From TrEMBL:
Signal peptide: none annotated. GO terms for molecular function: hydro-lyase activity; iron-sulfur cluster binding. Gene3D superfamilies: 3.40.50.11890, 3.40.50.11900. This is Benzoyl-CoA reductase/2-hydroxyglutaryl-CoA dehydratase subunit, BcrC/BadD/HgdB. Keywords: Iron, Iron-sulfur, Metal-binding. The lineage of its organism: Bacteria, Bacillati, Bacillota, Clostridia, Eubacteriales. The keyword Iron applies. Pfam families: HGD-D. It comes from Clostridium aceticum. Its cofactor is [4Fe-4S] cluster. Belongs to the FldB/FldC dehydratase alpha/beta subunit family. The keyword Metal-binding applies. It comes from the Bacteria.
């Protein structure tokens, strides 16, 4: 089966309707066990040090995995993707550009989605059928989210992992569901976590720091809300919402104020004690921290990640101190 690389979440239903295997390059990069080697390979090929590690990782992963077709999201994600696309094309890789409309209007989303359908030669009926088949899978991921914040049984990392994997369903939605049901069955049997633990939200792009959730849990905290990862699931949409509206409802690619409305709702619903705002070094989204700290009325710790791997000593100390403060406030 032909594999198509993704730089972030796109209308995956179109790819599945076309009979191709979607591959989220981010997920392969960060779980490869050789992320630093991939970054080094990108720098050997000319990528500067002061470019986001995710961009370098995406580039080198596509080369290493011999991906010959990629959908590059040029609007609504990373501002460096346009240049990354040009480098891939110079390597002979076929890159399809896709942009989330910044005006967030139905007519513009119609054009973007229909353009992708034409490229893969599928019709709206086939795409809507796949959307309906994915609906129960998305709802089971939503249930795992509830096992995290409502029933206090799933960990923050499990919540993160299964939600973020909805970008491509690991290339095989049916096997994804089989694996997910096994995990859910195991989680349901657990004794709930203690109420005294600090309840945190995580906002911002998924972390490149591999032990972030473990560090939080080792200090009596627990992430019960992963903002962007939750958005990837699209699980809040009714089964009858059409494909164009569903991707208009997807908050990640659009303005910060839209995201903040969802975040504020989650703070109340999930009874959050504090928030981790993760930013990536050299990423334009780091500027959003100014507005986030002004808009959200709860303690916020901003963490900046750079290279993949475990957290450095400074980050560990800041997390420990933040959680100590929240524990004192909670008591």
């Amino acid at each position: 089966m032909k594999r198509v690389g993704l730089t972030t979440t796109v209308p995956v239903e179109i790819l599945l309707a076309a009979g191709v295997r979607p591959v989220d390059l981010n997920n392969i990069f960060v779980t490869s066990g050789k992320a630093l080697d991939l970054i080094e390979a990108a720098e050997i090929d000319g990528f500067p040090r002061n470019i986001c590690a995710w961009i370098k990782g995406l580039y080198a992963t596509a080369i290493a995995e011999e991906i010959d077709t990629i959908i590059g999201v040029t609007e609504g994600d990373c501002s460096n993707t346009k240049s990354l696309i040009e480098v891939w094309q110079s390597k002979g890789i076929d890159v399809i550009s896709f942009g989330f409309p910044q005006k967030r209007q139905y007519e513009e989303m119609l054009q973007a989605v229909d353009g992708l359908m034409r490229h893969f030669q599928v019709n709206i009926e086939a795409v809507e059928e796949i959307k309906r088949k994915l609906y129960p899978i998305r709802q089971r991921v939503k249930y795992l989210d509830e096992l995290t914040w409502k029933y206090n049984k799933a960990t923050g990392f499990e919540n993160h992992l299964w939600q973020v994997s909805c970008s491509d369903f690991n290339g095989d939605p049916q096997q994804f569901l089989v694996d997910l049901e096994k995990v859910i069955g195991s989680i349901e049997k657990r004794t709930p976590f203690e109420d005294k633990e600090v309840r945190l939200g995580y906002i911002g792009v998924p972390p490149i720091v591999e032990d972030l959730y473990t560090l939080i849990e080792n200090n009596q905290g627990r992430v019960v809300y992963n903002e962007v990862q939750k958005a990837f699931t699209m699980a809040e949409n009714n089964v009858d919402v059409d494909i164009h509206q569903m991707y208009l409802n997807f908050t990640y690619p659009y303005d910060l104020q839209t995201r903040l409305r969802d975040i504020k709702t989650a703070i109340i619903e999930r009874k959050l004690d504090g928030m981790i705002h993760y930013t990536q070094s050299f990423c334009h989204r780091g500027i959003e921290d100014i507005v986030i700290k002004k808009e959200l009325d709860l303690p916020i710790l901003t963490i900046e990640g750079d290279l993949p791997g475990k957290a450095d000593a400074r980050t560990k100390l800041r997390i420990e101190s933040f959680l100590d403060m929240l524990k004192d406030l909670k008591e």
